[in-house]
């Protein structure tokens, strides 16, 4: 089996699964309990927080555990809206955000918030000038993803941070779910970012766990009310086995990060160079510094994306249409639509997404199968 769908979810590392199992078996106490067993769970929870913070060069008190990227995005956006609503009702985002962000914006719009959706260029990137021009006296939040999950375009999040320095009252949220372990640390953790959201299952941790970076001193309203966990900002008994497993997964991800990134670039380049030779191929991703190393989005003219996915699946190669969140709904790519790609091309789009475990040998096998399938599709469409 060749698994090229890592932007949808990654396979948990065996040592991560082992950590999860051991904590589940041996330390099942509630971290909020006062007895010794609860104290043991609490100390492990805080050790995991400290490990994640150290790996990201931030303070432990700036790390808050969540159930994943969707909750993190909802919390950063809606929590800021609730906290800052007396100062304004205007929020700026891009037209190519993940559904967790886009639907949060729709929810707030129904409550009377004013949302600006920035356009993107042909590479799927926003213009910082457009963002600055969109800022109003009532603007309270800017929310921009670091890496687009469909085509892999890298947003100018560091430059946006610089532009926002003169707007100290505007909060800045970065959805970095696709950006962790991709050589973008300095861009994402820029000195203006207030909230940054992450999801564990995107880097070999279990599903259902994630974390949010919240800049020290930055205020946000809680979405969950209850027992007061996470400094009264995110109530719910902590998912300790998953949190400790996530901390281990992050440590593994950050080990030899540059080498892992280069491996993904090499594989992406190999596939990109091969498929570009064919006249019915359209590529929406590039192998350049303003695109992530792990995502390659392309289309075969005249062939639906779902047909391409199932054709590769018959050879035990797993890719996806542009987004796992919309693939079963048979929706056209929202990102490609925002990039003004014609619908007949966007509905043919598929995505390869790599991780550090993929190999050149797998890429060569993909290329062999691609040639077979391309020839079949060409005969059908000729």
TrEMBL record:
Pfam families with a match to the protein in the record: Aminotran_5
Keyword Metal-binding: no
Keyword match Aminoacyl-tRNA synthetase: no
Organism superkingdom: Bacteria
InterPro entries in UniProt: Aminotrans_V_dom (IPR000192), Cysteine_dSase (IPR016454), PyrdxlP-dep_Trfase (IPR015424), PyrdxlP-dep_Trfase_major (IPR015421), PyrdxlP-dep_Trfase_small (IPR015422)
Cofactor(s) named in the record: pyridoxal 5'-phosphate
Every Aminotransferase class V domain range: 2-366
Family matches, as SUPFAM superfamilies: PLP-dependent transferases
This protein's UniProt keywords: Pyridoxal phosphate
Protein name: Cysteine desulfurase
Organism in which the protein naturally occurs: Apilactobacillus apisilvae
């Amino acid at each position: 089996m060749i698994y090229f769908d890592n932007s949808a979810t990654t396979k948990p590392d065996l040592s991560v699964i082992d950590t999860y199992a051991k904590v589940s078996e041996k330390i099942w106490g509630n971290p909020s309990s006062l007895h010794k067993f609860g104290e043991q769970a609490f100390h492990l929870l805080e050790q995991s927080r400290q490990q994640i913070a150290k790996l990201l060069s931030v303070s432990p008190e700036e790390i808050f555990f969540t159930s994943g990227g969707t909750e993190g995005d909802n919390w950063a956006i809606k929590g800021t809206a609730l906290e800052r609503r007396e100062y304004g009702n205007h929020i700026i985002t891009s037209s190519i955000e993940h559904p967790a962000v886009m639907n949060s914006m729709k929810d707030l719009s129904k409550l009377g918030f004013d949302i600006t959706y920035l356009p993107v260029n042909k590479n799927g990137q926003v213009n910082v000038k457009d963002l600055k021009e969109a800022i109003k006296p009532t603007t309270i939040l800017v929310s921009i993803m670091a890496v687009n999950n469909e085509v892999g375009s890298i947003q100018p999040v560091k430059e946006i941070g610089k532009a926002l320095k003169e707007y100290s009252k505007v909060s800045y949220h970065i959805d970095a779910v696709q950006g962790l372990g991709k050589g973008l640390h300095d861009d994402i953790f820029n000195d203006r970012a207030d909230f940054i959201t992450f999801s564990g299952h995107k880097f070999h941790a279990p599903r259902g766990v994630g974390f949010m970076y919240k800049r020290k001193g930055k205020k946000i309203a809680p979405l969950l009310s209850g027992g007061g966990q996470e400094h009264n900002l995110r109530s719910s008994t902590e998912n300790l086995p998953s949190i400790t497993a996530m901390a281990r997964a992050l440590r593994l991800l950050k080990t030899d990060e540059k080498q892992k990134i280069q491996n993904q670039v090499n594989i992406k380049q190999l596939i990109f160079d091969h498929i570009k030779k064919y006249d019915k191929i359209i590529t929406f991703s590039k192998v350049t510094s303003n695109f992530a190393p792990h995502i390659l989005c392309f289309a075969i003219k005249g062939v639906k994306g779902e047909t391409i996915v199932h054709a590769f699946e018959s050879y035990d190669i797993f890719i996806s249409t542009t987004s796992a969140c919309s693939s079963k709904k048979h929706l056209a790519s929202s990102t490609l639509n925002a990039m003004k790609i014609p619908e007949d091309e966007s509905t043919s789009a598929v995505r390869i997404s790599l991780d550090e475990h993929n190999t050149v040998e797998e890429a060569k096998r993909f290329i062999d199968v691609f040639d077979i399938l391309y020839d079949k599709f060409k005969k059908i469409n000729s």
